[in-house]
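Appendix B, Record 12. Input sequence as logged:
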Amino acid sequence: MVYLGLLIATVALGLATRRFPSVFPVFVARYGGDALWAAMVLWLAALLSPTSPTWRLALLALAISVGVEVSQLYRAPWIDAIRATRVGRLALGEGFLWSDLLCYGAGVVLAAAADAWLVRRLLAGRPARAEIDG
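Logged structural output:
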């Protein structure tokens, strides 16, 4: 339930950085959405596999994020048509940017740190991810 809440909050905040950029500091409005997108991928992975260790979730989230960014180098009418929709643009992006890769890395690191902290502090009583992985 914690991961679902984090997922929803991350999506809401990420959409807010795009919809209301003037409310946020310029740096956050410009790069925050990309970092939050990668964090969202980590929360989704944690939701689907709650017993996976944080490091594994982080690697998966980073791989997916980088894969989606690199896929933006591929241009074909069918995928460009998907990217032309609002949902497609939010999920797949529009064009490759090196800066997005840095944002994804930052988002994954911050989400992984939050996950490790949550597991140790908020979910006390349950085994920590490191204990689950052995």
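The two ends are 24 Å apart (CA to CA).
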